[in-house]
Write a structure and sequence with these properties.
CATH topology: Rossmann fold
Structural class: alpha/beta
Helix content: 25-40%
CATH architecture: 3-Layer(aba) Sandwich
Number of helices: 11
Length: 322
């Protein structure tokens, strides 16, 4: 079996969510550890004051990429910024960009998602489910595609006591829900949201579960793997220890508790805080694509699912915070 760097040699890779926390680390890892990679295409939403290329250039100037720039000064030449808005029809890709991606891409990493727990159901469906569906449809047209990696969450099925590495039946048919949202007004959607999500805690976990089913059903002819990380935190080793670019999630809690700002928190002291460093998740994701790619003709046709967690082997409890 060929090595991971050899697998990526000469490949064109597409990343969604590359400007997000995990997406940045994935981009850095691929460029640094797989120097033979041909190009990395990143879908970037244009902003009023910045073109996609300018957003990517600004991102590449941050400290996360210092080691990469030192080891590979010409790495930026492998980056291709593609203007896209995932919440729009056909991902708001121009005809030229669609054709370019269809003709060029070998591997897709779909990392983009809204991770806000209090997102409205309509907005969460738009980015986590409908955009994923559109990405799968685009991938089906790619002439050279070897593997499609969908980044989900270990909490997509948090209403289950034991979570196996399988795609579970959804609580509702995603296609019917998408159709219903087209005629419902926001007030009605908000009113029925608690009933729809049922025993899941929020729209994030609910829509990520629906997205997995969409990937399985509508991407049945693709070579797909799903990676389910738990609570993603600061880097362990790569490209250096402790890198984080936001105070969301556990990092914000630890900083606030350490500074004495956060003195109380409603939680069970014995509950496992299933934290996992972002570089561990990224290494897992890169390896999942490699394994699925090199074994695409010999492995079973069912979707490979990877639960990327630490709670079972190295549990950390919320009572240990602070």
């Amino acid at each position: 079996m060929i090595s991971i760097p050899e697998f990526y040699r000469g490949k064109n890779v597409l990343i969604t969510g590359a400007t997000g926390f995990m997406g940045k680390v994935l981009l850095e890892k691929l460029l640094r550890s797989c120097p033979g990679i041909k190009a990395v295409y990143v879908l970037v939403r244009p902003k009023a004051e910045q073109k996609p290329q300018e957003r990517v250039a600004e991102m590449m100037s941050c400290k996360l990429f210092d080691r990469l720039r030192e080891e590979q000064p010409q790495c930026a030449q492998k980056l291709v910024a593609v203007s896209s808005e995932l919440t729009q029809p056909e991902l708001d890709l121009s005809k030229e960009d669609q054709d370019m991606l269809i003709d060029s891409i070998d591997i897709v990493f779909h990392c983009a998602a809204t991770v806000r727990f209090n997102e409205s159901l309509r907005d969460a469906m738009q980015l986590n489910v409908i955009a994923t569906r559109q990405m799968v449809h685009l991938a089906q047209r790619m002439k050279k595609l070897e593997v499609f990696i969908h980044v989900s969450t270990a909490y997509a099925n948090c209403n289950r006591k034991h979570i196996e590495e399988v795609v579970y039946p959804p609580p509702v048919d995603p296609r019917k829900l998408i159709e219903s949202l087209e005629w419902m007004d926001d007030g009605l959607v908000n009113d029925i949201t608690p009933k729809l999500i049922g025993d899941r805690p929020n729209t994030y976990t609910y829509t990520k579960a629906l997205a997995e089913y969409v990937v399985q059903q509508e991407g049945s002819k693709l070579n797909i793997a799903i990676v389910r990380p738990s609570i993603v935190g600061a880097s362990w080793k790569e490209p250096f220890p402790g890198w984080i670019d936001n105070f969301n999630g556990p990092s914000g809690l630890f900083i606030a508790a350490g500074k004495g700002i956060l003195r109380t928190m409603r939680a069970s002291n014995n509950a496992v805080a299933d934290l996992i460093p972002v570089d561990v998740v990224v290494n897992h994701t890169v390896a999942a694509a490699w394994y699925s790619g090199v074994n695409r003709y010999s492995r079973p046709k069912n979707i490979l699912v990877y639960n990327c967690t630490t709670g079972g082997t190295n549990p950390f409890h919320w009572g240990e915070v602070g």
